[in-house]
Amino acid sequence: MIRLTKLNGQVVAVNADLIEMMEETPDCLLFLTTGRKLMVREKMVAVREAIVAYRRELGRAYPVPAGGADYNPTDLDDG
């Protein structure tokens, strides 16, 4: 999880693996794979850096499959 600040000043922990897309409007709007949206005070580059640091901490610096209409988990099988 990464710590971010909502516009009202409340600090929240967000599951970095659920962030699908970000948009700067000029605040940072996060679109989650759950369909929820979250507006935070941090700039997009700061959120990205937090995500990368979090994944490095866990030993996962690669993107996590988010699913979607064309997602097929059997495509990940080696056999």
Task: Please characterize this protein's 3D structure.
The protein is of the alpha+beta class and 79 residues long. The protein has one domain: OB fold (Dihydrolipoamide Acetyltransferase, E2P) (Beta Barrel). Helix content is 19%, strand content 29%. It has one helix at 44-58; strands at residues 2-5, 11-14, 19-24, 28-32, 37-40. The strands form two sheets. A three-stranded antiparallel sheet has the order 3-4-5, with no helix packed on it. A two-stranded antiparallel ribbon has the order 1-2. The relative contact order is 0.18. The model has no long low-confidence stretch (mean pLDDT 85).
| Structural class label | alpha+beta
Tally of distinct domains: 1
Low-pLDDT stretches = none
- Reported CATH architecture: Beta Barrel
Estimate the mean pLDDT confidence: 85
Strand content: 25-35%
Order of helices and strands: EEEEEH
Please summarize the sheet with the most strands.
3 strands, antiparallel
- Count of distinct strands: 5
Q: From the alpha-carbon coordinates, what is the Rg to the nearest angstrom?
A: 14 Å
Shape call? globular
Count of helices? Answer: 1
Distance N terminus to C terminus? 32 Å
Give the helix level as a range of percent: 10-25%
Instruction: Kindly identify the CATH topology.
Output: OB fold (Dihydrolipoamide Acetyltransferase, E2P)
